[in-house]
Amino acid sequence: MSASRDEKTGKWTAQCYYENWKGEKKHKKKRGFATKKEALEWEREFLKSTSANMDMRNCFPAKAEDRKQRTLNHFLRRF
Question: For the chain, what are the domain ranges?
């Protein structure tokens, strides 16, 4: 985790490296935070969102539940 202060503007910058879904290493940088705490919080949340398991059931739990309910309703209407 890295946060640094820009001497010209006095704002904070957060930057980090992460792996995308293809396994490629990427660099992410965001500027303009008023405090160091905000910069580190953004970085922590960003890394948390990129490291999540990207299984479709985790991405769209409401959609999966809706699909299950629709399938059940369709099955029950046949009788």
Answer: 2-77
- CA distances (Å), origin 64, targets 48, 49, 72: 23, 20, 12
In tens digits, the chain (79 residues) has pLDDT values of: 689 999 999 999 999 999 888 888 999 999 999 999 999 999 999 988 887 655 555 556 666 677 777 777 777 777 6
Q: Which residues, other chains included, contact 1 with Cβ-Cβ below 8 Å and sequence gap of 6+?
A: 14, 16, 40, 43, 44, 47
